[in-house]
Design goal:
Helix content is about 40%, strand content about 10%. The chain is of the alpha+beta class. The longest helix is centred in the N-terminal third of the chain and has 16 residues.
Length: about 200
């Protein structure tokens, strides 16, 4: 399935606030569609489907990518739901977004793919690159790259940087100190529902 490029406020009206998708707020509070105002109670399946869709739209991953992340999370010792969120949070595009270098994860993906970012002094253009503790993330030493990032830093998307990231705004250099804790994840989601949704598929 291709990456979603449609109306973002329709998605946030249906699923709630998704900081990685958009920071804009809809004027209407009701769900989209003809029967949005008279929505009946959701079934158990629909609840789990919506939690899965929150992950997909917020982090901008395809169905196939999300299933691969769940398979990967199941192989690692610990709570599968927490590990899944940690894997998604440690993606390079998400780290750039959490540092305030981009207004959304989609914008961060474009910054990475346009080769504005280096990791350990090596240029990385893969948005799904999995950052590891100890990685040093910096902006390429070129005027257009620095201008773009400084412009985005003037209006940060999120108010606080997670404790697993250390960011020096003057040198535009960040260091990954460790794996992010569950309480620092900005997205409001029940990750257990996502694992239950895929329990029969994987």
């Amino acid at each position: 399935m291709a990456r979603y490029t449609g109306a973002k406020l329709r998605i946030t009206r249906r699923l709630g606030a998704l900081p990685g998708l958009t920071s804009k707020k809809a004027k209407l509070a009701q769900r989209p569609g003809q029967h949005g105002a008279t929505q009946k109670k959701l079934t158990q399946y629909a609840l789990r489907l919506e939690e899965k869709q929150k992950l997909r739209f917020n982090y901008g991953v395809s169905e196939k990518q999300l299933m691969n992340y769940i398979r990967q999370a199941k192989k690692i010792k610990g709570a599968t739901g927490n590990i899944l969120l940690q894997l998604l949070e440690m993606r390079l595009d998400n780290v750039i977004f959490r540092l305030g270098m981009a207004p959304t994860i989609a914008a961060a993906r474009q910054i990475v793919s346009h080769k504005h970012i280096t990791i350990n002094k090596n240029c990385v253009s893969i948005p799904s690159y999995q950052c590891q503790p100890g990685d040093v993330i910096s902006v390429k030493d070129m005027a257009p790259s620095k201008q773009l990032i400084n412009k985005n830093l003037e209006v940060p998307a999120l108010s606080n940087i997670p404790q697993n990231l250390d960011f020096d705004k003057k040198s535009l250099t960040a260091k990954v100190l460790g794996i992010i804790d569950r309480e620092w994840i900005a997205l409001k989601i029940n990750e257990l529902f996502v694992i239950e949704f895929y329990s029969r598929k994987i």
